[in-house]
Design brief:
single chain; alpha+beta; BirA Bifunctional Protein, domain 2; eight-stranded mixed beta sheet; five-stranded mixed β-barrel; 11 helices; 26% strand
Length: 429
């Protein structure tokens, strides 16, 4: 008999024999009958059974969170929460849950985030926690669909690399074969630029690694990034792609995932493009005028400064035209002022979600920029030679999926939206 999920039970099944499977969430014994709530990934199912069905071999009784399968007939229920129930004819116990459990997966008894992460697989039985990863699943599907519709091809680039794509900072180093130095990739930047030479528009969704000793609610050592790169497109063009992607994603999640959003207490406001844009210099002036913060040209915007900006500018907005010296070597300087660059950060309040811009496509200028930033062009020779084969102008961005999910799910800590987060302290499970 084919298994039926909780969200598939419907009036047309009344009187039919079905099989359901999941874990025992609740047990209520009422004399000659027992009510069991069996929960699967889609929801809860009320089961009416004989008390003897709860006893397995050698007198062991079924415990909450045990894994079971139930065969029985669908009938109406008097419960306000479960209009249909199953009258059990057989109950198979696959695995008895050993108590005490490390956490209460129903969420009725609160636990610290660390305790929940230590028992992450069990934590996911909490419908509110599962809702986060259902939303993440749908978000990934929608991001892929939108980018493909815009003519982007999905690619996969190496995660073990021989040179530092962003200048060598915060890289995990490892010894490769024949005692060679290698690194874990912190972005697909160099590869995705090279691929525009022939494939025109590419995107990648993958894990990357940054050995940054940050102890914040928004940093991870392993994170998922959504990256695009497009030939014959400038910074404004790829900013429009980011806007259109964000609007489409949020609109569809609001329409298709209302139950998950409700479980999380999240209310999505779909923004209207174009998003507000302020220049770096305008941001500096706002901070000086409104908050008395003095920032010298070329200084990065601190977390505190971005928090203050986010209080003034709600929702999604871009900070554009950053000082060239603040950006990586591959970012193109502005034609009208080489001290500024064709670059942008996509913000949600104080939170940076994406960073990108127009790239240099002239090999000689790239070499000069590498030298200016104290980098050795010989370390990038495999990359630079591609720019001598007819490299088109191109632009792109990288979007932090994990950070975006904190916005969508209305949570404060990025670890909440990652199944098994890795940070400076956590390497297990």
């Amino acid at each position: 008999m084919e298994r039926v999920y909780a969200n598939q039970l419907e009036e047309s099944m009344l009187g039919r024999d079905v099989e359901v499977a999941g874990w025992v969430e609740d047990i209520r014994e009422l004399g000659a009958i027992v009510f069991i709530i069996v929960r699967d990934v889609s929801g809860g199912i009320q089961v009416v059974a004989e008390p003897s069905m709860l006893t397995v071999n050698e007198g062991t009784k079924v415990t909450r969170q045990s894994s079971v399968r139930v065969r029985g007939r669908v009938q109406r229920s008097r419960s306000v929460h479960y209009p249909l129930e199953i009258r059990a004819e057989a109950l198979t116990v696959y695995s008895i849950a050993k108590h005490p459990l490390p956490i209460d997966p129903t969420g009725r008894v609160s636990a610290s985030l660390d305790a929940r992460l230590d028992a992450r697989a069990l934590d996911l039985r909490n419908p509110s926690v599962a809702a986060i990863f259902k939303l993440r699943h749908h978000a990934l599907q929608m991001i892929r669909r939108v980018l493909v519709e815009k003519g982007f091809m999905e690619v996969n680039t190496p995660k073990i690399i021989g040179s530092a794509s962003e200048g060598g900072a915060n890289l995990f180093r490892l010894t490769y074969f024949n005692n060679r130095q290698a690194y874990l990739a912190q972005s697909p930047q160099l590869y995705k630029e090279q691929l525009t030479l022939a494939l025109d528009r590419v995107f990648e969704i993958a894990s990357y690694y940054r050995a940054e000793k940050s102890h914040t609610t928004r940093h991870l050592s392993e994170f998922v990034s959504v990256d695009i790169e497009a030939a014959y497109m400038d910074a404004d063009g790829v900013m429009r792609v980011a806007e259109e992607l964000m609007v489409s994603l949020l609109r569809e999640l609001k329409e298709r995932c209302s139950r998950e959003l409700s479980l999380l207490g999240s209310s999505i406001d779909v923004p209207s493009p174009p998003f507000p844009r302020i220049t770096y210099m305008e941001a500096v002036e706002m901070l000086r005028k409104d908050h008395g913060i003095s920032i010298e040209f070329g200084d990065d915007l601190s977390d505190h400064a971005l928090k203050l900006l986010g209080e003034s500018i709600k929702g999604f907005y871009f900070i554009v035209d950053w000082p060239t010296k603040l950006k990586p070597f591959y970012i193109h300087e502005r034609d009208d002022d080489p001290n500024l660059s064709y670059s942008f950060d996509l913000q949600y309040g104080a939170l940076e979600l994406a960073s990108g811009g127009k790239r240099l496509h002239d090999a000689s200028r790239l070499r000069s920029r590498l030298v200016e930033q104290g980098l050795n062009p010989d370390d990038f020779r495999d990359h630079l030679k591609v720019f001598e084969w007819g490299m088109p102008p191109h632009a792109g961005w990288g979007l932090g999926l994990d950070r975006l999910m904190t916005v969508i799910c209305n949570v404060k800590n990025v670890r909440e939206v990652v199944l098994y987060p890795r940070d400076t302290e956590r390497l297990n499970p």
